[in-house]
């Protein structure tokens, strides 16, 4: 009987406060859409770094034949086979805990396997380049990609080495922009959550005030505080639940349309968040919305719980 009474009172409150409840649903929807977008953005950054950083390598560009700006290439000649072997041995001796694999790429191999894939006709800045215009290089696979600086310190001053570059440097600016976007989204989400809490509390307080005579009668006949309070709390929970579920559905649509359906087809070299990622964060979004609603409703009803 008590459960039936509570559900009946909840349904009555829902019917009486449709406009305000729609407002709570809308604000909850927008708030948790921002929160979900922030989480997905950070998940995308983590996934891209995790999947791509494991594949990136440090490239040791060897001196080319001819003029070079590097002081290590003052001779104007590319290093000989014996000098390259000595350089590789130095890497094995001094960086055994950092470098896991060394791959030598000749000028011809770089031209065929890398340059022509990017510039099929061999044309670059108005010139047609050949293998003789390329540079030989050593490609180092690191055990820990974060230790690039150790490799650079050991090799940058070596004769025959023109430059030591880390492929990660190309994408660090992109990740920095995404990190800033995450912060901005999180701030907006925090503001919207605050608005949702205030609106939920106001709505529940107004609902309780409009039924003050009924709650007073319930108190006189011996109803417990929880029996009086629970219908109003459930009212806020229903609105927040619907709003948060809608935000999860919208996140799924966004990922399906713009990530899986467009971006993943255009840029294929990095992994992306997918529907599984949305499914993983959705329970936390829904639970968070319900919890915030319960807290806001409970606090707003304190003065109606006094005997």
UniProtKB/TrEMBL annotation:
Gene3D superfamilies: 3.30.70.3040
Membrane topology type: Multi-pass membrane protein
One GO CC term, this protein: plasma membrane
GO terms for biological process, alphabetical: cell division
Classification via Pfam families: FtsX, FtsX_ECD
Keyword Membrane attached: yes
Domain of life: Bacteria
Domain ABC3 transporter permease C-terminal, first and last residues per copy: 187-303
Transmembrane segments: 21-40, 183-204, 232-259, 279-301
Location in or out of the cell: Cell membrane
Main location: membrane
Domain FtsX extracellular, residue spans: 56-164
Keywords per UniProt: Cell cycle, Cell division, Cell membrane, Membrane, Transmembrane, Transmembrane helix
Biological function: Part of the ABC transporter FtsEX involved in cellular division.
Subunit structure as annotated in this protein's UniProt entry: Forms a membrane-associated complex with FtsE.
Family: Belongs to the ABC-4 integral membrane protein family. FtsX subfamily.
Name of this chain's protein: Cell division protein FtsX
Species whose genome carries this gene: Bifidobacterium ramosum
Classification lineage: Bacteria, Bacillati, Actinomycetota, Actinomycetes, Bifidobacteriales
């Amino acid at each position: 009987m008590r459960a039936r009474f509570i559900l009946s009172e909840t349904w009555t409150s829902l019917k009486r406060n449709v406009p305000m409840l729609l407002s709570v649903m809308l604000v909850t929807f927008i708030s948790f859409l921002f929160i979900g977008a922030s989480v997905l953005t950070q998940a995308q950054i983590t996934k891209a770094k995790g999947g791509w950083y494991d594949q990136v390598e440090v490239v040791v560009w060897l001196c080319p034949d001819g003029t070079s700006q590097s002081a290590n290439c003052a001779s104007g000649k590319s290093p000989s086979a014996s000098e390259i072997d000595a350089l590789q041995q130095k890497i094995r001796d001094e960086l055994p805990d950092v470098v896991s694999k060394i791959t030598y790429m000749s000028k011809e191999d770089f031209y065929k396997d890398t340059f022509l894939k990017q510039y099929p006709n061999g044309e670059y800045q108005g010139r047609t380049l050949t293998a003789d215009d390329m540079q030989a290089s050593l490609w180092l696979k690191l055990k820990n990609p974060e230790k690039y600086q150790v490799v650079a310190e050991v090799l940058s001053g070596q004769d025959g080495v023109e430059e030591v570059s880390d492929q990660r440097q190309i994408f660090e600016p992109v990740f920095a922009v995404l990190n800033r976007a995450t912060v901005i989204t999180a701030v907006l989400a925090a503001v919207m959550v605050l608005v949702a809490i205030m609106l939920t509390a106001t709505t529940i307080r107004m609902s309780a005030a409009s039924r003050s005579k009924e709650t007073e009668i319930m108190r006189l006949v011996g109803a417990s505080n929880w029996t009086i309070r629970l219908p109003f709390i459930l009212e806020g929970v229903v609105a927040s639940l619907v709003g948060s579920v809608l935000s999860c559905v919208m996140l799924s649509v966004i990922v399906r349309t713009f990530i899986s359906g467009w971006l993943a087809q255009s840029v294929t070299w990095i992994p992306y968040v997918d529907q599984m990622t949305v499914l993983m964060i959705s329970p936390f979004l829904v639970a968070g919305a319900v919890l915030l609603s319960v807290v806001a409703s409970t606090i707003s009803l304190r003065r109606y719980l006094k005997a």
